[in-house]
Amino acid sequence: MSDPVHRFDARPTAQVDPAATVGEGTTVWDLAQIREHAVLGRECIIGRGAYVGPGVRLGDRVKLQNHALVYEPAILGDGVFVGPAVVLTNDHFPRSVTPAGKLKRGADWEAVAVVVEEGASLGARSVCVAPVRVGRWALVAAGAVVTRDVPAFALVAGVPARRIGWVGHAGTRLVECESQPGTWECPTSGALYDERDGLLFER
Fold first, then answer.
1. Range of 124's domain?
2. Structure confidence by residue, pLDDT tens digits, 143-156
3. 4 has pLDDT over 80
């Protein structure tokens, strides 16, 4: 159905809490759940069975593919891609019960955030173990487990994830210029990047 006030579309089986804020042009597909006080930007796509926790913040044009799980207090920047069945955790020391054996409630633990910066992509079934930050335009390979911060434009893969290369805005792997060591070129766009002290910078 279409929300006439906020002008977003939600399928009949989707659950969008009345206390959530959903931007214009956003689509929430079947069986997705948007919890209270979540803030979704404009023109987002929330896939079938995806979950967005209380207070989670999504920028504009974010894509959550089917069954992606984004737990509070995650923050996703503009243009972030989250692949199918990706998990963004929020508990550094997960336990169901307290040391005394009582069921843990919200007040018994402190949620920690995964932050995914502008344009970054998380491949299918990857896991980001909070607290962790994925930098601008980085690419996390399918099935990777991210346990430490990912620099901007980094391509990371494996368990735990390690940098195996660089990517540009187009998402394709950059190639180092033979005549200029430390200079990387995007084979798709021709854009150039400079590597300094283990970080990559746009020209």
1. 9-164
2. 999 999 999 999 99
3. no
